[in-house]
Amino acid sequence: MQELGEIFGLAIGLIVSADENLLEIIFLSLRVSLSAVLISCLMGMPLGAMLGMTRFRGHAAVLVLLNALMGLPPVVVGLVVYMLLSNAGPMGWLQLLYTPTAMIIAQTILITPIVAALTRQVIESLHSEYAEQFRSMCVSARTAVATLLWDARVSLLTVALAGFGRAIAEVGAVMIVGGNIIHLTRVMTTAIALETSKGNLDLALALGIVLFLLALGINAVVMSLRSDTTRYGYA
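User: That's the sequence. What structure does it adopt?
Assistant: Structure tokens below.
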């Protein structure tokens, strides 16, 4: 077995030399995760805003369900999406199984409840400040949602970053629906698992370093945004 120092040196060499296979895996990971986050924000933020603004019969039950969905086991989501997209499933005719699209669908299902729940918390707090003014001006629900989402944009950016961090680190669901196919559906997390099992520790470590740096960067941005929010009094 290679010495740890030698493996680490080879991993750094792959990153510095911009190894073609390494870049391909990284770019696919970013493409899938960013697409899933964008879709999740488009669906989850308006939903979270409506839940934060309104009260209706069964509101508490909906919140309990939403919070429960935040902890969805990735392998269960992967299994459900697999069954839907397989040839025997209701959406099998789309031929999406083992494609990046299937991976985006699985990640979107996992991230949307997180985005919606965190957005609800932000908007619920902000709405209490605006509620009286909205009522006096007879503002429509659509306009109120748009106003609150815009005013809370800094905080909602941290919500989106939290969703991205969850997506980029996902392995179970994307492994099931993507199949970890080289040059097609192999992303960083699935590649790390495969290369480690094959003994290719230099490539696995290189991918692990990149993944760690991404996670570090995301957390740094989130902390910076939260600091600015507190300092300047933004939502």
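The chain has one domain: 31-223.
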